[in-house]
Amino acid sequence: MGLKQSLHNLKEKYKGTKMAPAFGAFHTFLYTPNDTTHSGGHIRGADDLKRTMNIVIIALIPLLIFGMFNAGFQQSIAIHHNFSSGMSFFSSEFWTLDNFFIGFWKIIPLVIISYGVGLGVEFIFATINDHEVEEGYLVTGMLVPLIVPIDTPLWMLAVAVVFGVVIGKEVFGGTGMNILNPALTIRAFLFFAYPTWMSGDKVWVTGAVQRTQDIAEGAKLDAITGETILGSLAQGKEFMYSTWDMFYGFIPGSVGETSTLLIILGGLFLIFTKIGSWRIMLSATLGAIAMGLIFNGVVDAGWIGEGSKFYTLMTTPFWHHLLLGGFAFGVVYMATDPVTGSQTNKGKWIYGFLIGFISILIRVFNPGYPEGVMLAILLMNVFAPTIDHYVVQGNVKRRLKRLKAKTA
Amino acid sequence: MSTDIRIKKGLDIKLIGEADKTTTQLSLGSVFAIKPESFHKITPKLLAKEKSHVEAGQALFYSKADERILFPSPVSGEVVEINRGAKRKILEIIIKADKDQQFQDFGKKDVANLSDDEVKAHLLASGCWPFIKQRPYDVIAKPDDKPKAIFISGYASAPLAPDFEYVLKGKEAELQAAVMALTKLTSGKVHVSIDVNASLSPFSNLNEIELHKVSGPHPAGNISTQIAKIDPINKGEVVWTVSPQDLVIIGELLLTGKFNAERTIALTGAQFNTPSYITALPGAQIKDLVTNNLDDDNTRIISGNVLSGTKVDTEDYLGYYDTQITAIPEGNDYQLFGWLLPIFNKIATSRALIFSWMSANKKYNLNTNTNGEHRAFVVTGAYEEVFPLDIYPMHLLKACMYKDLDEMEALGAYEVAPEDFALTEFVCTSKQPHQQIIREGLDLMIEEIG
Questions:
Q1: B306 vs A contacts (CB less than 8 Å)
Q2: Which residues of A touch B313 (CB under 8 A)?
Q3: pTM of the predicted model, to two decimals?
């Protein structure tokens, strides 16, 4: 008796029991089910939610791997102070196995905790509520390790994941029902609960926090630091990275957000497969450019002096904003979440534009935390149903107008 | 005068098993059945008694809501059995056909000289009324309404749909008679839409119609699509629709006085050895129609097309309105890593490692597998790509699900039929039953608003 038949027999055995959701999750991971159509059309399209989610994961994997190399690379340049700006993307200094394994051993635990805890919560809720384990967390679980600083303690991540999945999603009814992007809810929880671990110049380089503690205990070591470019800009400090470094991603930052090049490639893949919304990606970019141009214009007009604490960020050329921080990552992978984003095509333009616009606004004016994309997306998640409401009302009004024209 | 309708949104699902243009004249089968269920929202009141004899065209039952609407027997023969279900609901009226068919004579009519009321009375008395359906709600028309227009789609764009140009060949006289009768029932026009490429369509030269040429992918041939482009339905308005083969039946009745429900049926789909056309009466037993032609091993037989037809088996009967039988493989098997591996032999509108976008003209052998499990709505924007109406499909579906009548009305529920949601159902990654949701929503509106 083959595996297929044995699993089928088990499925029949577990049908209607508390085991069914958990077993179903494993079973459908191995085999797409033998369900046939029983109402309406007799044939169905080849893609399901698992496949859709999987495409997003495929688009994230290059970023995960790049993040592993970059973790080692950032640690190495922080210790040896040997960063030379202007490396090519395929530089042999960057793509070394040493770099990779430093990152690998730091990042894999984040991935395991993210998936283990998150899917655990999903399994529990699926069993209690007696529904299938849904795929939403497959993407969230991959996003989470990519949007946190590399040294985030694992217990913190676990707490945040539980909070994010339960409060961000399950209380609303699970996948498809949530209002806020679960991955960003997790990050926002970390950000507000443990702010010292989410910003500053110690958290972006693996080992930096540990070393600071060792020094405090009397070890004879040099402190290592690594400030993100946005952090430097917010404090009006110089930084040593060229535009190409930013574009390729040889800079400090959250694990997966640094390489704009790979994010663009991932975004193009999502657009090509029709999984990600090009409308949101494009309009968010336009929104960011608009806000950036406004700030640049304000500076050019002389309305703001060099003494202002916003001066450095406002003078940053508008297109640099697209390369810095988590903007590109947020726009491509988080803003495009179909559940929490706008659902109408027209709404997507407005929603995306405002995300880009507000991201840069927060980025420049928020002194405490030099990044705005997370808050901008969460804010627009809340407004997305309102945007859709007005878009749909436009359709309703058109219908009423047609009726009036008839009866008049 | 003709106007052109072009739609861009939609999807042509190309399947193997298109019917060859040859028609086999089948001998009459022995057992027929009429199912009141084929007539949506009709509560039947029996006229025929068990063991009694009926002629072709003689009424078997009438509608409880309007006793003028009669439902005729397609054959002459003996009513052998009336099968009832729970609460004595009538499921099937089974008729054993006579060797020599006798037709009830309704008398030849000269349509030009009939008044509006005479036409109506004639169609009601002869049992032709159920061929006339109304929008909103996609149910049998109410005889007392005066529709603002009547729509006929002479273009079937559904997968493997019968070619009207072929099946209606030589029926111009019947079509003309029927159309002339229909023009008397509406305050507006009779709109007929044909495929822009159908050079020999029997509709092209008819009088008293407004001809429209349609192009674009499915659902270009769906009547809702055409209504929306020609003269959209507003709240309070009613339009009627008739399908072309039913027009022929109406036409023949007017010309000869006989109710002859014989249609040309397309046998289509991968499980037929030789997909082709046959002649058959509604209510014919499926096994009489498909003998020696069907590969019946693990096969889904559908009375109708793959998108909106009804599941039947060989002991079952051809649906009253259906002009097509489709047979495709059942998909009741597991697929190892079906969600992960690239797919070359199935269709999707996304390109999620599914390569149907690469070969636009390839024909597929799709089976009935759902290719995934039922989920909440997640993906957005996919429905709009295959949905040409000016309606937000997901919002309307959700309004139907939470039964908000005001919202359903505002979002355009009067303009749709379940079949319009067949393509959104096909592309739905959450595998939601769209057509069922819309049907239940429309039924609720009938009950609450009427």
A1: 41-43
A2: none
A3: 0.93
